[in-house]
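chain below, 183 aa
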Amino acid sequence: MTSEKAQQLLDAAGVDETLHRLASDIMAGGGGEGLLLVGIRRRGVQLAARLASILRDTGGFDVPTGSLDITLYRDDLHQIGPMPIIGMTEIPGDIDGDRVVIVDDVLFTGRTIRAALQELADFGRPRKIELCVLVDRGGRELPIQADYVGLTVDASARDLVEVRVPELDDMSSVTLVSAARES
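prediction:
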């Protein structure tokens, strides 16, 4: 028999503080000129928008944002079924020569990021591509690491890291749900 144990890692204030730190780190990593934030659907899009808002409010930089739906670039597309639900990918303008920061909520195996890199390549050749994640939970299957990490969590493969954003979930938080074994 299994049971689940939930541990809140960040509340709304903690998520906000972490996003402010990430925005500061992104600026320190190369400034705001030629910067584009691209969120991976679903929650990466909302996080990218929040980072852009912070950069505008704190640094006066108007950073464009975009979104990627990596569904058709997944290496397990055949397992999804015959009619996957595909969202919109929106890249504002030409990305050639830009510094693109891909934003996602949780970094786990690295396969989502591999798919995002593959899709992004269809839109041009950025000067530099970086990765910003709210949570790095370990467990990589591919040699992909984030440049900007909000929170590092030691989670087993069975654990779940839940990121909630106000736009989709009416709240902001990060929770670790651990699958515990009972005897």
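The beta strands are 2-10, 35-40, 65-68, 99-107, 128-136, 148-152, 160-164, 173-181. The chain has one domain: 2-77+85-181.
thats it, cya
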